[in-house]
Input
Amino acid sequence: MTISQTAATANAGARGKAFAPEYQGALGSLSVNSSLTEVLERGIRELRAAEAAGERAEVARCGLAVAEAYRRLGRVEDADRAWKASYRAARDAGDVGAMAWALWSGGTLARQRGALALAYRLLRLAAEAGERGGDVVVRGYSLAGLAETGRIQGDYQAVGELHEQLLAEARRRGEARHTVWALEGIAQMHRNTGSYDKALALFEEAAETADRADDRRGWAWALRGIADVVSVRDGDTERALRLLSEAEVVCRDMKLSSALAYNHKMRGNVLYRAGRYEEARVMYALALAEFREMEEPRGTALSRLGLAKSRARLGRDASETAAELAALRVTLDRIGLRHARDMVEKAAAELGVGPLPVSDGEGVR
Output
């Protein structure tokens, strides 16, 4: 996709519907709501055709879609090979914009795998390449990736302003999908700092925006956020579970492996808050298996935390719970997730098993 084509796609998004700028070249007609298996099958087919024709720029563009499909399906090793191959093809073609998109994909994958320092480096390079190549969309996506990396680390002061800036830019350009992303990120920061009313309003705005734009993925993530807030603020367990069930249908239809796992983890959270500890244990165990299958360390650690809390409520020995929490604290420190580390300390206090022992990081599984 040339710079002018990227701009044309952005203008199409400005007319009100969400678009997927990572689907480029021969794959540019794919919808943001295309199932990932469809994206992968068609992407591989078009990639092979471009390779046979010796069209390196098209190889890069098709390879990007393949990399993103693999990443979202949780096939991280395949995704790693695909984004690097896309970058090499873009470099051979002298296509700076395509190089930027490949770097963005690689940086997003690094964040998903818990390699946050690498994520920062690749996403900064992607933003710089996007600026050099004149592709405002990839530059915006890369800056958004940097903001999200900081947010999941809990560095809200550093990235809060960037989230607001990116929201304003997305609204100005009419990019519904990016607007939804920014609204959800800001909402999550408000939720995590206890501003539940603001968080709920923003998640609801994100859901409405995604619905109008036919962005099913963004809508599913927004429903998850709404479910979280109505559970923790209002204690409305049944509404939260209904919202998560609606979102789960989308996750399954589109084969959104990561989103589905996070949906299951949130269902565990809702059930735990309601005192339904055995049901929560089952959901946390399911989410844990899903995250481990896709080698997603953040989700794995958070599911382990929920599972440890549920088991403790069901009568697990306090020393075993303390050892598990201590191991999780080490894991979260290694990933660099400050907010999640605080959650471990709060869990220890809540369960009456603190202060936590020093752990070698292995703990009790």
About this structure: Confidence is low (pLDDT under 50) at residues 1-15, 361-365. The chain has 17 helices and no strands. The domain at 1-153 is CATH 1.25.40.10 (Serine Threonine Protein Phosphatase 5, Tetratricopeptide repeat). The CA atoms of residues 326 and 356 lie 6 Å apart.
